[in-house]
Amino acid sequence: MPLQNRVTPFGDIVALPGRGLMMGNRGILHDDRARIVRPWQGRRWIACKLEFRGRKRVVMRPHSYTELFFLDEAAALSAGHRPCAECRHEDYQRFRSLWQSCFGSPASADSMDAELHEHRLLARRKRTYREDISTLPDGTYVVVDGEARLILGKKVFRWSDCAYTGASPRPARGVVDVLTPRPIVAVLAAGYEPSIHPSVMALS
Length: 204
Description:
By secondary structure, the protein is of the alpha+beta class. Helix content is about 25%, strand content about 25%.
């Protein structure tokens, strides 16, 4: 039975079989029996490489941070995570530089995390907002028919824990619910290109 440590683009932590291509961290979320007891601990939500300098971890070890898993970076960004400054230093610096160009002030990990936390949650639930789909950049997640869909090129792709499982034409216009936090959408629009699960290639 899979552990409850897979994260959807809605930011929910669920028990599903697909590990995905990226790991993440929100602090210690599980108890000594590997049960999720809180959705986050603190504001530092990061997205990491699955492998880094040969480090090995026991997943959901007691009193250690909870290893979370995402289909890809776009899904991690949708959930409200940003690049890790250690294992993904180059991605972090690129993200931080674009953030600064978007918002016009020096960006630190702490300042970005504080701003992102305001946009992740509303009364302890996922914060969404409404925008016309024509204005949204590639890499953004939206809700279509109650499901998370990734905008990429002229299509929107249906998320699953293992792969993208379907594609449909991107509407030319129309207001949709947006899952990816506003500041991250701004960084995407400024040129940040998140890694995308290769299953989109078969659907393109």
